[in-house]
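Student: Please help interpret what follows.
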Amino acid sequence: MGDAVIDRAGLDALVAGLHAAGYQVVGPTVRDEAIVLAELGSGADLPDGWGVDVGPGHYRLHRRADRAVFSHSAGAQSWKQFLHPPRQPLWSLDDGEFRAAEAEPTRYAFLGVRGCDLAALRTLGTVLGDGAQPSAGFARRRRDLFVVAVGCTEPGGLCFCASMGTGPETGPGYDLALTERVDADGHRFVVSVGSDAGAAVLESLTHRAATAAETADAADAVAAARDRMGRTMPATDLRALLVESRESPHWGDVADRCLTCGNCTMVCPTCFCTTTEDVTDLTGEHVERSERWASCFEIDFSYVHGGSVRTSGASRYRQWITHKLSSWHDQFGSSGCVGCGRCIAWCPVGIDITAEVAQLDALRAAAEGSPDADR
């Protein structure tokens, strides 16, 4: 099936059609002076005419001169929170009666998933859905998921998906993909179909066939975004670099700045670690257990009998970045980083993962060039 074109009213109709099909539609909207992912009541909730200025430890909305809907980079939230919620009840005990938590019946439709986040969904699928011990809740939510991706035409100042091979083009895993175009010819979306379910939804909308020129223009606009990435990861073997940098003195420099707050793990679209918590009421007659997100920056994360293994900030930052860029390959066959830049924007002290890796690479090169390197 060839590409199609819908207008701005067609986007509203898409939201309404997904609602009618029984989906809870989630997409970007404006709240608390930020782009957040939330349930959409209608297409009117989408962030028409908003852009984002981002930098290390910096995030601000600004008004655009046009009414573009998807011309903003990633906010603090990722789609992970809906498939792998921050807190999930597991069971409760009341007066001796055990009750397992009931699975919620929600069917999600994600609207506005960029290439980096689409790659993150695939990565989470490998970790939580396809392993030897899959998460039943994640697997069910992913199975019922409908994805409307968007081709990224305006990357943010912290984006580096191109150097991670995850964008700006949309990879596999979508039902429909939209590329937004706003110019003298109007406001429209070039639509590509990725599944039979997507084709059925498109058929329910008012649309027309895209011309060859429109399809080419959409592809060119996304491809051009590759040259406008705000950041880039060094073009080296990251997996080997992190292994070889285990004893680098640079970890101490990072530790002098890092607050070990865990913000980077909370906003990362692929971090998946959890712990369990038990809570009782004052009478002791009600007990409940829940699962919540955990972070490798927590001092208790590496606790074993006798104490925590990673007690220093340097060791905890090294663990995070080494797992993300290196040992993730050994576990799951890919990198754990998709280049979305969230960890840079939402770090209170502006630690930049691309800059830290570049420094490790420079230190390795300097060491290899040192007269003492072969001694």
About this structure: Residues 4-228 form one domain. The radius of gyration is 22 Å. The chain has a mean pLDDT of 93.
